[in-house]
Amino acid sequence: MKIVHIDDVPLVAVPTTRAGTLDRRTLLTGDPGSPGDFVCGVYYQSGDFFAPRHHHNFDQWRFQLEGETNLNATGVLRPGTLGYFPEGAHYGPNGREGETTDVRNVIVLVQFGGPAGNGFVSSAKFAAAREELKTLGTFDGGVFHRNEGVAGKKTLDSFQATWEHAQGRPMIYPAPQYNAAILMNTHAYRWMPLAGAPGVEAKLYGTFSDCAIRAAGYKLDPGATFAAAGRGIFVVLSGSGTLADGPYRAFSALYLESGESAPYTANETTEILLMGLPDVSRMKPPPSSRAERVGA
């Protein structure tokens, strides 16, 4: 179990392989190098941020807090939109290249190893690989261009190029279990009483993939208690009270492993967002231990 409060972590610039600027407050991270590794943070995108249409070999949650994230053909994330972005599925582009606005987009973003077992590269390892790649080529508009005479594909999606450099092997994109991102308008869901928890209501957004990745919202009346349980990240969107043995407030974040639980008791009306993580026991073993790995 880990508990972090947003006002206890610094706002830092994120070294990005995309165009424009991106800042982040990192709330929670997982176990580097493990298939279940993850990062959770609040991200601040400037109006000039751009990423071409692309896909990843990991899963993502995105919850829009402020502004709008224009993913063009994929849809638009407005405040209250929760998006599940499955591994292997294309989405975007994010914004329009060369377009600059004064709007600041603020999202809660969770990136995590998905069902295919590829894991997730930690921020520190990814940043180091990006700096090394700068000596071998240039990043431009979300694409990495290798210098003349440098071995490898001359142009490659900037994320893929950085990932491959960090991992020392080609990226194998898994076949997506869903062909596209799933965008949920959380305002359109109804609050329903949560059985066995007086004063607590829930919005059940869904369970995704064969690894049982959950998403839900919870609302606590003053004095009510909610027992968070199961592997996932719980973010307080509003309200205050006590969590385990300490206080919680807006944008307190809780990480629970499978089999763990923690009680919230509300001092004032509280809303909590659950962005679940996969059941690791259901994930494929990492590529290094599979016959399909590169060179096997």
How does this structure look, described?
The protein is mainly beta. The chain has a domain of 90 residues: Sandwich (Jelly Rolls). Helix content is 7%, strand content 40%. The chain contains two helices and 23 strands. The strands form five sheets. The chain has a seven-stranded antiparallel β-sheet, with no helix packed on it. A seven-stranded antiparallel β-sheet has the order 2-3-4-9-5-8-13, with no helix packed on it. Strand 6 and strand 7 form a beta hairpin. The two termini are 38 Å apart. The C terminus is likely disordered.
Apparent shape: globular
Low-confidence stretches: 289-296
Query: What is the helix/strand order?
Result: EEEEEEEEEHEEEHEEEEEEEEEEE
Number of strands: 23
Task: Evaluate the radius of gyration.
Answer: 19 Å
Largest sheet descriptor: 7 strands, antiparallel
Return the CATH class of the domain at 191-280. Mainly Beta
Summarize the structure.
The protein is mainly beta. The chain contains 2 helices and 23 strands.
Question: Secondary-structure blueprint of this entry?
Answer:
Layout: E1 2-5, E2 12-13, E3 22-29, E4 38-45, E5 59-66, E6 69-70, E7 76-77, E8 81-85, E9 105-112, H1 123-133, E10 137-140, E11 143-146, E12 155-157, H2 158-167, E13 182-185, E14 192-193, E15 200-208, E16 213-220, E17 225-229, E18 232-238, E19 241-243, E20 246-248, E21 252-256, E22 261-266, E23 270-276
Task: List key phrases describing it.
2 helices; mainly beta; globular; seven-stranded antiparallel beta sheet; Jelly Rolls; single chain; 296 residues
